[in-house]
Amino acid sequence: MYSKDGEQYYVVDSHIALWDARPENQRNIHGKQFIDCFYDYHRNLSPESELWGYEEYLYQGGERLMRDVFVDDIVDHAIFQPARLAEFYHRGFGQTEEALALAQAHPDKLTYNHYWDPRDGENGLDALRANAERMHLKGAKLYTADWHGESRGWKLTDPMAYRYFEACRELGIKNIHIHKGPTIRPLDRDAFDVADVDHAATDFTDLNFIVEHCGLPRLEDFCWIATQEPNVYAGLAVAMPFIHTRPRYFAQIMGELLYWLGEDRILFSSDYALWTPKWLVERFVDFQIPEDLTEYAPITTAQKKKVLGLNAAKLYDLPVPAHLQLPDADETATGPRQPAAADLTSV
């Protein structure tokens, strides 16, 4: 729980990972390219006080993750969103067994989501069913630009992907997190395009589609999709650190998301270990839309509380202490904010 100026915030970091990018796990040059790209994001978007050395960036381990994510008790709960990347890393990038063991040892603090890939075919469906039972899955992380043999990406609309969505529906895996954001070398930019979210969200209205990185750099495309699909959510991983390097750009991101999606469908994420959550939580609580960006309303404390944790807690049925809850809001509108009377006077 984070406290500031008499306000208390229940914080859910909805996108963390435990990875191993050390040289002995790199299958080829692409494994090094991938982690080097991650490190460039970290180095270019972090405050100097939060910079890590390159070697410690390659692997953190469970003990350090617990210390970094839950330091000072700021984060109440965190959710693993692993990527496989088996073409680049011998044991995969996300460390399944280590992360799962942590979540099982700390169920009050950690939830483990697992990946699936429709290109694994029927064997993958069998694995999904077995993993759902063993891991007690409530969510999945999809990486549509991951390489698989000769394939360099897939779409949510692929026929086999629909088989997996149907399996998720049957297994109670309701939260589908999808990387739809900046490209990481050597993955292909277009394989992260957001267009296929529209089709899948329409056909599976009982699943929640959390678009990680809120579609950046395709924010406008994402907003136009999400405003008409009430089961589409915005994850702020990678968007958050712009609060430091490009605060006006971050204000634009938040302003657009609040306008199009509303306050109930935006989720805070640090994207650990690209960044650690503490400074991002602190900066976000203090952040406000610049006054000269008059097209956006100020961000209220209640909105910040929802973004920082209450929205994710609702998706994952996390028990939020009564004193940290807000009264239930009306259902988020499925269209853009309606103009207030004062707005109409200038039309």
UniProtKB/TrEMBL annotation:
Pfam families noted in UniProt: Amidohydro_2
Protein name: Amidohydrolase-related domain-containing protein
Ranges for region Disordered: 327-347
Residue ranges constituting the Amidohydrolase-related domain according to the UniProt record: 13-318
MF term (GO), any: hydrolase activity
InterPro entries: Amidohydro-rel, Metal_Hydrolase
